[in-house]
């Protein structure tokens, strides 16, 4: 059986340092992008699981118990971090009056603490997305560079040999086009993953923002309901007393 003289192995064996560098760059970009895709997918799954614990948090008898329930859903739960930050600010915001931050109103200090925590969480969620976008935008051009360089050397070798038959041209040129296909194979998963994770992050951040708003309302203006008609409707209770 005749051995195939074309393909990846022949392309690597007949290539020079530039074609080798292009192939290595594409391989590294693919490995890094797939690592980021898998890592981001795991993070997204953990955040969605942590979001399901919000009902248990609001059903808890105390803030500490609620935070413990959020921590059970994930060690790095952004919801638990928000609740911990809000609870810590509620206990310590006015503890050091000599600080500049203590000049804010307590409600504004709470808002500032939650906003900082949201910014930190957003930065962590967006970490790596720039590399995915860069890979999706540049990998096709890196592959095209390898193709152009390979076609140039293939045509140069054919010209020097003086054999311009179709079977002499089609093989090396088709072999060089493998680099373009490799660039597209690296870019497409990165582009799809970037778009998917950008949308997922937008949904999660909106959910976190709503939770932060609820925490701010709870710690600043939230009061427990009292099952006493005189406290719930003081005007009605006073009218009833006067009528009696």
List keywords for this structure.
rod-shaped, mainly alpha, 11 helices
Give me the oligomer status.
Answer: single chain
Q: Mean of the pLDDT scores?
A: 77
Percent of residues in β-strands: under 5%
Helical residues, percent: over 70%
Gyration radius over CA: 31 Å
* Count, helices: 11
Q: What gross morphology would you assign?
A: rod-shaped
Structural class: mainly alpha
Alpha-carbon distance between the two ends: 111 Å
Extract low-pLDDT stretches: 224-244
Q: What count of domains describes the coordinates?
A: 1
Describe the biggest sheet?
none
Total beta strand runs: 0
Listing every helix as H and every strand as E from the N terminus to the C terminus, the arrangement reads: HHHHHHHHHHH
Structure, explained:
With 244 residues, the chain is mainly alpha-helical. It has one domain. It contains 11 helices and no strands. α2 runs antiparallel to α7, α4 runs antiparallel to α5 and α5 runs antiparallel to α6. The radius of gyration is 31 Å and the shape is rod-shaped. The chain starts with 7 loop residues before the first helix and ends with a helix.
Q: What is the topological layout?
A:
Layout: H1 8-14, H2 17-51, H3 54-59, H4 63-72, H5 78-92, H6 106-126, H7 129-161, H8 166-176, H9 178-220, H10 229-232, H11 234-243
Helix pairs in contact: 2-7, 2-9, 4-5, 5-6, 5-9, 6-9, 7-8, 7-9
Short description:
With 244 residues, the protein is mostly helical. 80% of the residues lie in helices and 0% in strands. The radius of gyration is 31 Å and the shape is rod-shaped.
């Amino acid at each position: 059986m005749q051995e195939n003289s074309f393909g990846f192995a022949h392309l690597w064996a007949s290539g020079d340092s530039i074609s080798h560098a292009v192939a290595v760059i594409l391989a590294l970009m693919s490995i890094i992008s797939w690592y980021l895709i898998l890592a981001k997918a795991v993070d997204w799954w953990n955040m969605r699981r942590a979001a399901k614990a919000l009902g248990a948090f609001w059903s808890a008898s105390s803030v500490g118990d609620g935070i413990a329930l959020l921590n059970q859903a994930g060690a790095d739960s952004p919801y638990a971090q928000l609740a911990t930050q809000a609870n810590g600010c509620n206990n310590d915001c006015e503890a050091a009056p000599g600080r500049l931050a203590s000049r804010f109103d307590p409600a504004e200090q709470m808002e500032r603490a939650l906003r900082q925590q949201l910014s930190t969480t957003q930065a962590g969620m967006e970490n790596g997305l720039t590399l995915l976008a860069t890979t999706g935008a540049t990998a096709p051009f890196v592959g095209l560079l390898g193709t152009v360089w390979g076609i140039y050397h293939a045509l140069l070798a054919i010209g020097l040999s003086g054999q311009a038959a179709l079977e002499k041209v089609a093989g090396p040129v088709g072999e060089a086009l493998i680099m373009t296909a490799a660039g597209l194979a690296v870019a497409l998963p990165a582009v799809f993953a970037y778009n998917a994770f950008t949308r997922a992050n937008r949904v999660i951040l909106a959910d976190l923002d709503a939770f932060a708003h609820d925490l701010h309302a709870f710690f600043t203006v939230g009061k427990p309901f009292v099952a006493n008609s005189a406290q719930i409707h003081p005007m009605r209770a006073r009218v009833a007393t006067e009528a009696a």
